[in-house]
């Protein structure tokens, strides 16, 4: 097949890790006879530096015209970067929120998998980690607190701030359908996470999710309150298959889930709308402290490229090949610094390598 991929290398380690994902996609194209055309566009801090704003209409138009978008990461050090002297709506993160909304990317898929080879990096007790886990967090991405009305104003001589959390039935239904569809291809369990003991939006979330569940008799639906879910993620992560939740809860729980896998540098993500189009990016951030050093882990971005092949291009065989190539690199003992074992003896049994070498090895495994 022939596909046009818009790349947003972004800030910090973004350009380094996107370069490795391109390398791997080019190898897939060569081996399986596809043609992937890449075009780079700016977003986030890089766009502020060039155009004064984090997201231009041109970037949106190019992304919309593409078959899929591959992103690195955006943002910088909030303490030292001049980008954070700008008002919030002009900072790098506003670019990311803007493109999610502009492209209607309402479904954010964040898989959290404990790789056997990396189980030593899992911070949980061995009796928990040895069971392994493989969950898919489905986070609603264009509603809730992130996009509700907000304002800061003065009342009775003091400042007051309001953020609003709104969901409509249709917004809940479309993400719930995606979650159940994905559960059908997995272990057929959906855990819908909410705060229905307090929030109206959560009570609506629960009732719509239950309605959708009626169309999926094979899938087990359970509801879990978000505070309990935060606890269960570290107590017994193996219980989860698909976690379905709203925007803010998903933001928080997906960071927690990534941490228990041992490295955020391993975690891919996909943000989808209701067509085949998607934006694919690693779950981790721009890591400005290690940018330019050639040590960042490119695996999350490479695995995001695999998700692109699977969800946007229906190239399952090629996506499997990338995932296998990653596992092989790990099995062969190659590690970037973030996934090096803590234990001295174990460190001696693996080989620490940099970003580009990891990309080379994974590409050569395809
Ligand atoms: C994420 C990030 C973003 C979010 C930030 C950078 C706005 O934390 O993708 O999880 O909160 O959605
Ligand atoms: Mg986050």
Please report the distance between the alpha carbons of the first and last residues.
18 Å
Q: Residue-averaged pLDDT, rounded?
A: 96
Largest sheet, strands/sense/barrel = 10 strands, mixed
Overall spatial form:
globular
- Taken together, the total number of domains comes to 2
Strand content: 15-25%
Count of beta strands: 14
For the record, the CATH class of the largest domain is: Alpha Beta
Tell me the name of the CATH homologous superfamily of the largest domain.
Answer: Isopropylmalate Dehydrogenase
- Main-sheet strand order equals 2-1-3-12-11-4-5-10-8-9
Bound molecules: 3-isopropylmalic acid, magnesium ion
List the topology elements.
Elements: E1 2-10, H1 14-32, E2 35-40, H2 45-51, H3 57-65, E3 68-73, H4 92-102, E4 107-113, H5 126-129, E5 134-140, E6 150-155, E7 158-163, H6 169-184, E8 189-194, H7 200-213, E9 220-225, H8 226-235, E10 242-245, H9 247-260, E11 270-272, E12 278-280, H10 299-311, H11 316-331, E13 334-335, H12 344-348, E14 351-352, H13 355-364
Parallel strand pairs: 1-2, 1-3, 3-12, 5-10, 8-9, 8-10, 13-14
Antiparallel strand pairs: 4-5, 4-11, 6-7, 11-12
Helix pairs in contact: 1-10, 1-13, 6-7, 8-9, 10-11, 11-13
Bound molecules: 3-isopropylmalic acid (IPM) and magnesium ion.
Residues 251, 255 line the site of magnesium ion.
